[in-house]
Specification:
This protein has about 900 residues and is α+β, with helices and mostly antiparallel strands. Helix content is about 25%, strand content about 20%. α8 (about 160-175) packs antiparallel against α19 and α9 packs parallel to α11 (about 260-265). It is globular and about 85 Å long. Mean pLDDT is about 90; it is low at about 1-25 and about 70-100.
């Protein structure tokens, strides 16, 4: 009746009731919910409706889900606010599911749908979330395919292979409902001591750019947001992760920026993650010049920038450029960060105040929120927030991508040595397989469980087909256990397990302890903070007292490990005295114990600087089988015709390597096997360079298999027996010794010489190096023009022939050197590569197109120019084997 009266009063033609209702609905539907409206208008409309709390929750990213949480708590203010941000339509940009990687695709899809439904239907504004995950070389989820580690994918020197892998990962990602991946790592691995080298595409900006482009393009084309990381350079002096860097603008533009710029401008990445470290004195997470000026202004980046996990607070607790979390938040957001990534939900309390009290400008907050909302509209989440659970259920048993994984693994393998053509092997030979890595099938950092891992031993046994022809024993260990942390059940304080701990705010245990507690075991790493907030992190002492109950009778090793300033007393007798603060030591003594007897223990520790480590250790329960394992390997070698040793390294996040040799007693195993006179094939498992001077001259064959993924065992076996001919190339330089580091192929000319007086400056294996089971001949290089103008293209054509008796692939590489420039230029730069398959005796004409962009450089004014003069065009099989050369003149 009211509608009819309204129409009558207007004195216009009477509409049907349906038409009136439609008209009314259009009038009341918010613009942001109108799929026909432009994204800019939808963002503007939604932003105008949001409260400061709601805006904050769009900029706070946490791993966590709604499992076990009463939804009423959300409506009633779970966040401790008068009205919760979630009930107002929050749901941080990437509020992810709990990291329960054991959930299959179906379970995960249902969970994501449930979370989306809550935020869409039960919050004030109905803003959907962007579920995110890690997908470095396969989605980190149960049932997802594990492909070769990133460094191995780069070693393929094959962008189509990379694209195939990325498309497969993207499909497995999208079917589960995940719409943003915190991948890829396009940092330059400038020092192979860096534990995260495995996550990168190597040391070269061109190779890293091309591999990163192939990866992100595959995801973005499937409308999944990619997040290249870590902006901009997070390996510093000594190969240490997240160390401060002080690179000038020229180095940044020439080496470190290109992979990120290509991923953003050509790959269309819509997100970016900052690094933990500082750059020229300012934390990367709050660096205005980096995030606002370079990224958003100069490059025109329209996506959103997220911090690495916990990095915003780093300005306060690590870099000491902020008085606390509030100031570090202000610095980060005003500097150009958009989204704060934290690991715990309750951390929001540390970061929300500046969003509510006006400390951060409204315009900067609105810009950040707009970037996040734009991404959600781009993804179509407001119209289609859910994923097909039927498709996800089918994906549970989907193993179609295993063939892609095996092909990618084979393309990644780099044959480093093959004297007397020991490879490929003959199946009729009796083979002894050795090493932990032969059975473990390690996948590398940021990996899921895989979709059915095949170990090296399994692959070899399957390929040989006669189980009796393949013998196995461990033989060695990457990390032989010589001691352990003394567990709580060996320690007693009155009737309680553990030791009494007294913490003093001085170094001489004077006065009363500031804190007293029971520590179950002594295994502490106090880095960011002191043991207690009542103490200064750089000035305190600790005394632990109680009893040790010996678990066994006999002479055992017992002692302390840490960064000095420690003493150990047993029955009031000082047995270990490492009180001076000098370095990090392990100190153990032999002591005769009687089972079940109590021994009074006193441990004293002082810290004068911060970054404290202290452990109470023994070999009570350590079973050391190193000698036994080695003896068994020597015995079995007598029965074998050939020995295959899978030898690996320890690396990863928080695991930088000071020494690059094989850890544990693996080198000893290799040398002992070489002494038997049997041919030895070493399979190197890992994601970075390995020094080999202690053993490489004693073995005829070395094959680098990286972390080959879930199909690695099958791929390795087929390669060992010649079903596949390896053709991978090194994306990093292998040094002879750590003292040569950092060592990269594309350095600038020295003012004197490259060598040391007691060691060559040459690498063990150069960038781009790799052998084959066949041989290739390069010939007849011809430039289409010998002289060109600055805006002209030229082609370099040459002939490649397989002169061996096996089919194989060759990675032809194009390098260019500017022969004369107004500023110093690199000795050579990779500018192109092609992976070509040839049958025995077959030859092909190969063409590299040299475009003006390849000849550009930064002049003294930091402008990108092509300077007239000669350019050396070099083509070959590696950065050292430059077999064909011509000179191109630019007029």
């Amino acid at each position: 009746m009211k509608i009819k009266c309204f129409v009558a009063i207007l004195g216009i033609t009477i509409f049907s009731l349906d038409a009136i209702n439609t008209f009314a609905q259009k009038q009341t539907t918010p613009v942001y919910k109108d799929a026909k409206a432009s994204i800019d208008d939808r963002v503007k409309d939604l932003l105008a409706r949001m409260t400061p709390e709601e805006k904050f929750w769009q900029l706070f990213m946490i791993p966590g889900d709604l499992d076990g949480v009463d939804k009423k708590r959300y409506q009633n203010g779970i966040f401790g606010l008068q009205v919760s941000a979630v009930s107002q339509g929050g749901g941080g940009v990437n509020q992810m599911m709990s990291y329960n990687t054991s959930e299959n695709a179906f379970t995960l899809a249902k969970k994501i749908n449930a979370i989306q439904k809550f935020f869409v239907t039960e919050t004030r504004l109905g803003i959907p979330i962007i579920p995110f995950d890690e997908a470095l070389h396969g989605l980190v989820r149960q049932g997802a395919t594990a492909f070769p580690q990133a460094i191995g994918l780069a070693a393929s020197f094959d962008t189509e292979n990379m694209a195939n892998v990325a498309r497969a990962i993207a499909g497995e990602t999208k079917v589960r409902g995940i719409r943003d991946i915190l991948t890829p790592v396009v940092n330059i691995a400038s020092d192979v001591r860096w534990g995260r080298t495995e996550e990168t595409y190597g040391e070269d900006p061109f190779l890293s750019s091309q591999m990163g482009l192939a990866f992100v393009s595959a995801f973005e084309k499937q409308n999944i947001i990619t997040t290249p990381k870590h902006f901009i350079a997070n390996v510093g002096d000594g190969g240490r992760d997240s160390y401060p860097i002080h690179f000038n603008e020229r180095m940044m533009k020439e080496i470190y920026y290109p992979p990120f710029e290509v991923a953003i401008k050509q790959g269309k990445s819509r997100s970016l993650m900052t690094a933990y470290n500082s750059i020229d004195g300012t934390p990367a997470t709050s660096n205005y010049q980096l995030l606002t000026q370079k990224l958003k202004t100069d490059w025109g980046f329209g996506g959103f920038v997220i911090s690495d996990a916990g990095a915003v607070g780093g300005a306060s607790v690590l870099h000491h450029t902020a008085t606390g979390y509030a100031q570090s938040t202000i610095q980060a957001i005003e500097g150009g960060l958009d989204v704060i990534f934290q690991t715990e939900f309750d951390h929001y309390k540390l970061f929300i105040p500046p969003f509510l009290d006006g400390s951060i400008s409204k315009s900067r907050i609105d810009d950040a929120v707009s970037r996040v909302l734009k991404a959600k509209f781009d993804l179509g989440l407001f119209e289609n927030p859910y994923v097909s659970e039927k498709d996800a259920e089918k994906a549970v048993s989907d193993k179609r991508n295993k063939s892609v994984a095996k092909a990618a693994a084979q393309k990644s393998f780099v044959l480093l040595k093959n004297e007397q053509s020991i490879l490929p092997l003959k199946t009729e030979k009796k083979i002894l397989v050795l090493g932990e890595d032969a059975t473990e099938a390690r996948l590398g950092g940021y990996s899921g469980s895989g979709n059915g891992k095949i170990s090296i031993l399994e692959g070899i046994r399957k390929r040989v087909g006669q189980p009796g022809n393949v013998l196995y024993t461990k033989g060695s260990s990457r990390d032989p256990k010589f001691y352990q942390i003394i567990p709580a059940n060996f320690l007693r304080t009155d009737t309680t397990s553990g030791l009494k701990a007294e913490f003093f705010d001085n170094l001489n245990f004077s006065g009363s302890p500031v804190v007293t507690r029971i520590d179950k075991k002594i295994d502490f790493m106090w880095t960011l903070y002191a043991p207690d907030r009542k103490l200064a992190k750089d000035l305190y002492s600790v005394r632990w007292t109680g009893n040790l109950v010996a678990p066994k009778t006999g002479v055992f090793k017992i002692g302390l490990e840490g960064n000095d300033g420690f003493r150990l007393f047993i029955n009031d007798k000082l047995l270990i005295d490492q009180w001076e603060k000098t370095s990090y030591h392990s100190r153990l003594i032999s002591f005769n114990f009687e089972k079940d007897k109590k021994y009074a223990v006193r441990i004293e520790f002082q810290e004068t600087k911060g970054n404290a480590y202290i452990k109470f250790i023994s070999d009570f329960e350590v079973i050391n089988n190193v000698d036994k394992e080695l003896a068994e390997a020597v015995s079995l070698a007598k029965q074998a015709d050939v020995v295959v040793i899978a030898a690996g390294i320890k690396e990863g996040e928080f695991q930088d390597r000071a020494m690059l040799n094989l850890p544990g007693n693996q080198e000893q195993l290799i040398n002992e096997m070489a002494k038997t006179g049997k041919p030895v094939v070493v399979l190197l498992v890992g994601g970075s360079a390995i020094t080999m001077n202690n053993w490489i001259d004693h073995v005829p064959a070395v094959l680098n298999v990286w972390y080959p993924g879930e199909e690695g065992g099958n791929a390795i076996a087929e390669t060992l027996f010649g079903d596949y001919n390896p053709a991978g190339r090194l994306p990093i330089t292998y040094p002879v010794h750590e003292s040569q580091l950092p060592l990269v192929y594309n350095h600038k000319p020295t003012g004197r010489g490259d060598d040391y007086n007691n060691l060559s400056g040459e690498p063990l294996f150069p960038f781009g190096y790799g052998l084959s089971y066949t041989e290739f001949e390069y010939s007849d290089l011809v430039l289409s023009k010998r002289e060109i103008n600055q805006n002209e293209k030229v082609t370099a054509t040459f002939k490649l022939k397989n002169i061996g008796n096996r089919a194989g692939e060759e990675v032809a590489q194009l390098y260019i050197r500017d022969m004369l420039a107004t500023v110093v230029r690199p000795v050579l730069e990779l500018k192109g590569f092609k992976r070509i398959g040839l049958k025995p005796g077959e030859s092909k004409e190969i063409v590299f197109e040299i475009e003006p962009e390849m000849l550009k450089m930064l002049n003294a004014e930091m402008k990108s120019v092509i300077e007239p003069g000669d350019f050396r065009i070099m083509i070959g099989a590696s950065s050292k084997a430059l077999l064909l050369k011509e000179t191109l003149k630019v007029l």
